[in-house]
Amino acid sequence: MRKPKIVVLGAGYGGLMTVTRLQKQLGSTDAEIVLVNKNDYHYETTWLHEASAGTLSPDQVRYDISSVIDRSKVDFVQDTAVKVELETKKVILEKGDELSYDYLVVALGGAPETFGIKGLDKYAFSITNVNTARQIREHIEYQFATYKVDKKPERLTIVVGGAGFTGMEFLGELGNQIPRWCKEYDIDKEMVKVVCVEAAPTALPGFDPELVQYATALLERKNVEFRIGTAIKEATPEGIVVAKGEDDTEEIKAATVVWAAGVRGNPIIVESGIENMRGRVKVEPDLRAPGLSDVFVIGDCSLVINEEINRPYPPTAQIAMQQGELVASNLAKLVQGKTNLDSFTFDNKGTVCSLGDDDAIGVVFGKKVTGTKASFMKKMIDNRALYMIGGIPLTMKKGKFNLLK
Amino acid sequence: MRKPKIVVLGAGYGGLMTVTRLQKQLGSTDAEIVLVNKNDYHYETTWLHEASAGTLSPDQVRYDISSVIDRSKVDFVQDTAVKVELETKKVILEKGDELSYDYLVVALGGAPETFGIKGLDKYAFSITNVNTARQIREHIEYQFATYKVDKKPERLTIVVGGAGFTGMEFLGELGNQIPRWCKEYDIDKEMVKVVCVEAAPTALPGFDPELVQYATALLERKNVEFRIGTAIKEATPEGIVVAKGEDDTEEIKAATVVWAAGVRGNPIIVESGIENMRGRVKVEPDLRAPGLSDVFVIGDCSLVINEEINRPYPPTAQIAMQQGELVASNLAKLVQGKTNLDSFTFDNKGTVCSLGDDDAIGVVFGKKVTGTKASFMKKMIDNRALYMIGGIPLTMKKGKFNLLK
Predict the structure, then answer these.
(1) Does the beta carbon of A146 lie under 8 angstroms from any beta carbon of chain B?
(2) Which of A331, A348, A365 is the last residue of a domain?
(3) What is the pLDDT of residues B378-397, one digit of tens each?
(4) A292 and A402 share one domain
């Protein structure tokens, strides 16, 4: 009898959790497992704001996939999935190969959501992957270096679009990094302007207002200027144009514009004709795509409703990893001929938003935390993600142990 | 009786040598000494190719002026001289101040000579000072980072205009640095192109042909492509256009163009109406400007003829420092009422052109040297310049001691 073939697309939090759990639960005769990923490394999406600000190096935020998978059970294919042919059960890869599957796990990350704002795709940077993160850091440093040559003040202005989770964490790192850059490039700190523009009526919507207040006050002390309730109308080669009052607009000249607001699903979802809302799939309780008994969708491409507030959970590493665990055990059941798949319930252990490596805010197990304690917990959360996928060796190698400040 | 006032413009090799010798030779009651410089630091012009390639940090190629001058004898003014009023014996400074003098030493560095080639001033970088050097390094790194995002091959092409001293030394550093950058940015080394374009019929004109052959072969092994006898016709936003055959041209697409050919005198010479040839002053034997008994000109702005070949000596640190020594002793004589000023004779101790930090070529005390030995001598020359101006403390702090490879 032919072994069933499980294909996992994406080696992010969800995909790697699926594969590492599968390789524990299944023997090498039970199933063929194939992992497809664009790079031969996994990167910590939740640490990219640090690479973007240069507070961590690109190498610190990634690790080799080969270091966590069991090669005797998992085949790794370095390629990019471009389309899923649902009828023929095949994945089309960028380099031209086709990959058939019995079960498919779509664990691909999302794409930046620019909400149709003109020029953002062209003139704004995005904290999307290791390459774009590194580009942001190099871009800012190049602007600082060039300021010393041509003295144009806008070279020292950084606009961050969005005061959500990523935006605030990035601002926290910038707050710590800018004084170091000023020293390195002989620049007066007062010349640097960091402006955060957020269309919503508050920073960190959904967070406890007291914590939001703590975070914005802290970032303001680090010279961040907030423009809350202000919509970006356009990004241009010179900076951005924001709404002002009813009909007016205002230009903010800035050499660096980083768009840190909103994630939509991966284009492959739409391309493959899987039922979706803005590229994300409202999955069944067992995490399968509606109407497809052999396709699971997890992570940024999936949409799970928080029944308490009747809104989707935001896409996070935490939820992706929990989904990966469940998909692995559901796949193990299917391979073993069982049909009683388990339903997914999100167990929210809390959320911590870092504000540089020395401060943070968050809610952990229902309790509000700030300051050093929150920062410590954030690092524990980061280390836990490493531990869940790669055990102690990976945690020792890539973990954050600068815990005492 | 009023103390005579000596104003020295520029804290390069010539200016600092003048001031540090003067402060030894004169007591604080003998003369008032004022040093004017744009920055509060001196930078090693001959090391800038290393900062430009990122093999040395900007901080490694500079030191604080305050660390070598005797504040009880020398006033330091951080400003830029814009004009000398010869009639009224005043220097006009950028910030608006005026500085009167009894004796003036113009020891300002040169400016890049672009020979009227279109677009070079706008689209090419120049290894001129710490700021432009740092900008070049940051620019290349930003291009490498961006290549990983947009995959445009020209981002990995670097054109160096000129195979003279600076050009060849910069190519040597690039040869060593590019493999490191490729590792840092996950780039295949084969994708990077370095093209050196030189209009003259040979690299390093004036150097021994055997040494030139050694240098070009070594750089070619480090993947530098030489286009000797090829003139740059134009620099554009996309790269450069070079002459090809009699009438034809060829475009070389390159995100980075570094112009490393030719130095002309400082614009202040022309601006002040001092007799000059392309901004450089053909000085009298005692290093005074023709017809001016109170103005000395040394370094890049001066022109001293090598009688043997009836051509000017190239502007180097070695000649500037020897000029500084002579000017200091001539000034001491003038202050003491003597009129028998000494004449300048250049004592050429040799020239070494580095090819990365591990190889070099040169002629030292009349002998040809290559390889590790030449590289060692180059570092000794670099350390000697530090020692001559700042003694042992400065040499220990900023010297090059990675002598054994």
Answers:
(1) yes
(2) A348
(3) 998 999 999 999 998 999 89
(4) no
- Choose the catalytic residue: A32, A44, A50, A169: A169
Tell me: pLDDT of B403 over 80.
Answer: no
Length of chain A in residues, anyone?
A: 405
Grouping H, G, I as helix, E, B as strand and the rest as coil, residue A302 is strand
User: Contact B141/A142, CB-based, under 8 Å?
Assistant: yes
Classify residue B343 by its DSSP letter. P
Mark whether B169 is an active-site residue. yes
Determine contact, residues B240/B197, Cβ cutoff 8 Å.
Answer: yes
Q: Using a CB-CB distance cutoff of 8 angstroms, which residues of chain B are in contact with residue A60?
A: none
Task: Give B160 to chain A, closest Cα distance, Å.
Answer: 19
Rounded to the nearest angstrom, the minimum Cα separation between B61 and chain A is 13
Residue-level pLDDT at A328: 98
pLDDT for A115-152, tens place per residue?
999 999 999 999 999 999 999 999 999 999 999 999 99
**ipTM given for this complex:** 0.83
Residue A405 has pLDDT above 50, yes or no: no
Best of B78, B136, B146, B187 to substitute, by most chain A Cβ atoms within 10 angstroms, is: B146
Distance from CA of A148 to the nearest CA of B (A): 6
pLDDT(A265) > 70? yes
CATH for A126: 3.50.50.100
Q: Do A149 and B132 touch (CB under 8 A)?
A: yes
Which residues are CB-neighbours of B265 under 8 A, at least 6 positions away?
Answer: B110, B111, B276, B278, B279, B280, B281, B300, B301
Q: Are A289 and A175 found together in one domain?
A: no
Asked if A75 is an interface residue toward chain B (Cβ–Cβ < 8 A), one would say no
- Could you report the per-residue pLDDT of B55-93, keeping only the tens digit for each? 999 999 999 999 999 999 999 999 999 999 999 999 999
Tell me: do B330 and B215 sit in the same domain.
no
Question: In the structure, what pLDDT confidence band is assigned to residue B333 with cuts at 50, 70 and 90?
Answer: very high
Residues B162 and B294 in one domain: no
Query: Which helix (DSSP H) or strand (DSSP E) does residue B259 occupy?
Result: strand B256-259
Q: Which domain holds residue A30?
A: 5-38+79-112+263-348
Do both B302 and B356 map to the same domain? Answer: no
- Say if strands B5-9 and B103-106 run parallel, antiparallel, or are unpaired: parallel
Q: Which of A135, A138, A146 sits opposite B135 (nearest CB)?
A: A146
In a shared domain, residues A124 and A231: yes
Nearest to residue B104, comparing CAs of B87, B121, B119, B116? B87
Give A126's contacts (C-beta < 8 A, 6+ positions apart). Answer: A112, A132, A258, A259, A260
